[in-house]
Amino acid sequence: MKTVDRSPAALPAREPETGVSRYALLAREMRQRVVKGLWPAGSAIPAESELAQEFGVALGTVRQALALLVAEGMLERVQGRGTFVSQGLSGASMLRFFRFRDATGEVPQSTILERRSVNATAEQAGLLGIAPPARCLRLKRLRSLQGSPVLLEDILLPLPDFEPLQRLPLKSWDDLLYPMFWKHCGITVARAQDELTFGAPDAAQAAALGLQPRHPCIRVERRAYDFAGRCIELRTTLGDAHAFHYSAETR
Amino acid sequence: MKTVDRSPAALPAREPETGVSRYALLAREMRQRVVKGLWPAGSAIPAESELAQEFGVALGTVRQALALLVAEGMLERVQGRGTFVSQGLSGASMLRFFRFRDATGEVPQSTILERRSVNATAEQAGLLGIAPPARCLRLKRLRSLQGSPVLLEDILLPLPDFEPLQRLPLKSWDDLLYPMFWKHCGITVARAQDELTFGAPDAAQAAALGLQPRHPCIRVERRAYDFAGRCIELRTTLGDAHAFHYSAETR
DNA sequence: GAGTGGTCTAGACCACATC
DNA sequence: ATGTGGTCTAGACCACTCA
């Protein structure tokens, strides 16, 4: 059987050395461009045809790489308009773990109870990937629906990345935190990992939530990451266990 | 600009009438073949090239349709071997919502406490899509780890589909239910929807779990569906809230 | 109308599994 | 050796968005 003489070059489907496919390499390169800020969040990336030309591959190969990054949540495609770098999670609301009456889809009001800079514990510093003294911004935040407190949050953000939030007047804080991360600190939240457990609040926590001491609560421990995979937030959220309601699908 | 004369026919990318793409139509057809049993669970479906020939489309179009069904969990592809119809969920273990000490990854032992045929309530019949008198098989089942009861389940299965389980000697029941559905009733569980809430057990339930009356519990309400989208199981599971532990990712 | 992503074709070669 | 899915090419046309 004769082989076809392809021009300009008959490249193998995979890198012979590493065994990594070409579209996977493309995806890796484009991921780097987002992480390094060459393609900022919200901006449009070059058209498929341009990318194909730049990387010297066929259109279909570029599309395969793009599909990977779309599945990861890093890119978003809009027919007729272009391909855009994701702005990251906007809310990732803790409210999805709860169901409070007469409050479906509503954004709860936020009150910052406390804002201090502290040294993270060794464990926290390890999770955040920062070295001692591991300076952090610590927030205590109460979230309310129709005037009633529903969630109490304890948030740890590494400094100096979140320095702008240290000075920002508490009055000008928004109800949603992640858009503020982006607006004031240029930080995008790409992914959040939540661990739910059952537990009781301490006396102060119960009081802040308007609950009896030792009232059963659900505790959500969150770790949030940026597109580089770096942990950029540690958060503990407490809410009334009787309001707990979560829906999970398996397939 | 001249158009290329493609043979044998220049079909449009979409059905002009419906606006549905060709690969979506292909996927719909193949989905039907699985639902109707023409392609039974676990069997290999025809090769890509055969499908392309049968449907009169290019290979890439077939691949696009297959990718859809793989994403749905209906098909599984194995390089070099072929494409197979999924056997469905094997476990979908309730244990993923809990963390009992010294028991990670272990399959809990199952004991059937009760097996009766009952009439479903109107609500249950509606969910199961069956008409009155809505005969069902009702199971009460205790699941234990290292001899200690951990989960109490109340399961409702529509008759006559699950008739074989009505007669099967309780001794020959397996620890996992879904493989039994398939083995004895030919029913595949494609998808399960779980709703988690907080609540207290009644006296009998607490006793069965070896807990104090009113001990805090997590309640899991499950609806399981086959590939045709029909609900084929209603289940309520109770477990100690202190053992509750769930991990959720947002991206 | 120009530019974007979405769909589709008709091939080719590569890597893997099985006999 | 044969057959499978996985990767890749170099085109074409379609549907959508926006200036």
Task: Describe the 3D structure.
Two copies of one chain form a homodimer. With 251 residues, chain A is of the alpha+beta class. The model of chain A is unreliable at 1-10 (pLDDT under 50). Chain A folds into two domains: 22-85, Winged helix-like DNA-binding domain superfamily/Winged helix DNA-binding domain (Arc Repressor Mutant, subunit A, Orthogonal Bundle); 94-243, Chorismate lyase. Chain A is elongated and about 65 Å long. Helices cover 25% and strands 31% of the residues of chain A. Chain A has a six-stranded antiparallel sheet with strand order 4-5-6-9-8-7. The first copy, chain A, has a three-stranded antiparallel sheet with strand order 1-3-2. In chain A, a hairpin with a 3-residue loop joins strand 2 and strand 3 (82-85). Chain A has helices at 22-35, 48-55, 59-72, 122-128, 163-167, 177-185, 203-209; strands at 44-45, 75-78, 82-85, 109-119, 135-145, 148-158, 191-199, 217-225, 231-240, 245-250. Chains A and B meet through strand 7 and strand 10 of A and strand 6 and strand 9 of B. The first copy, chain A, binds a DNA duplex (19 and 19 nucleotides) through helix 3.
Write the layout of secondary structure elements.
Two copies of one chain form a homodimer.
Chain A: H1 22-35, E1 44-45, H2 48-55, H3 59-72, E2 75-78, E3 82-85, E4 109-119, H4 122-128, E5 135-145, E6 148-158, H5 163-167, H6 177-185, E7 191-199, H7 203-209, E8 217-225, E9 231-240, E10 245-250
Antiparallel strand pairs in A: 1-3, 2-3, 4-5, 5-6, 6-9, 7-8, 8-9
The structure holds a DNA duplex (19 and 19 nucleotides).
